[in-house]
Amino acid sequence: MTSRRGHGEGTIKRRRDGRWEAMISLPNGKRRSVYGKTRKDAQDKLRAALREVDTGLNLDSGRQTVDQFLDHWLADVVKARVRPKTHHDYAQLARLYLKPALGRVQLAKLSPAHVQRMMADMTAKGLSPRTVHYTRAILRSALGQALKWGIVSRNVATLVDPPRMQKKRVTALTADQARKLLDSVKDQNDRLWPLLTVAVMTGVRQAELLGLRWSDVDLTNNTVHIAHTVQRIDGEWCFVEPKSKRSVRTLSLTNEAADAFTAQRIRQVEERLGAGRRWREMNLVFTSTVGTPLEPSNLNDRLHVLLDAAGLPKKGMHSLRHCFASVLVSNGVSPRVVMEALGHSQISLTMDTYAHVMPAALQDAARVLEDAFAVKD
Questions:
Q1: Residues 181 and 320 in one domain
Q2: Same domain, yes or no, for 266 and 156?
Q3: Tell me: the pLDDT tens digits for 198-207?
């Protein structure tokens, strides 16, 4: 049975082997086939192929190289779906590793052996398993799209196992260490005291912290709304959406965090007056001395200095977020509540990350059970 369409819109027919074949006319006059196990599969792939012809994507995979396809995929698919920083990271890994190793290979001739060799070469050069893993993941995503469009018959990246990644145990400051750090920084009247206090008391990500605007802070109700992050992309500062829908959240502030915001507002007024015309107004809460976003690397370097001055081990800004979460989990706060506070997309992420601090909470649970089921005299 054949379903006919208008000129250039393709036809669908069932083959003798039981598969459904959809054919489309390419701008160069050639014909291209995509296949599906059912008629609907073939129709879906045909519609996708037609959309890509409209955007100028070359579906003639006979000569298209991996390099050419990656360029189209990054520009036409990835850029529209992910945050600018993620797109930048994808493009960088493609430029550094995928294109040099696989770029000249014709897409239709790409094999698992090509991918395996690329990963082996990356490992031999001393690149971390994490980098190799992410590079393969990007290729897998790109080839997955090519498979949906019917450009390739299989996703060869899925046929090669990624390198084993050892999961690092989260290291965080303890509550006592965090208290010692905040007291030390406050005693020094360091300009980062408000920022570090908010970091410890809210557990927000560094990019979320640096992207906070005064319009996000409600000191009447002691809440802060997390709605965006700030990132430097190609040398320019950009405000982007958080990592996931659950990352958009409103957090209640402790009194100490609210006091820190008040202190920051006063300090910022003084710094704005001191900077004069050099001040760049971006409505940010935590800024440089001229109003621009803080550089993450500079922030971490300064934190190391402050930790050393307080006699504490060197750790990064992310350890303050881990401190917040570890304190909550170890004191019996529901993992679901911790998940919402951290802005995790899945509770499994919260449980996996902080499983090592669960024993104390489980001991409390055991005591609750003992009390509930105690034999009554």
A1: yes
A2: no
A3: 999 999 999 9
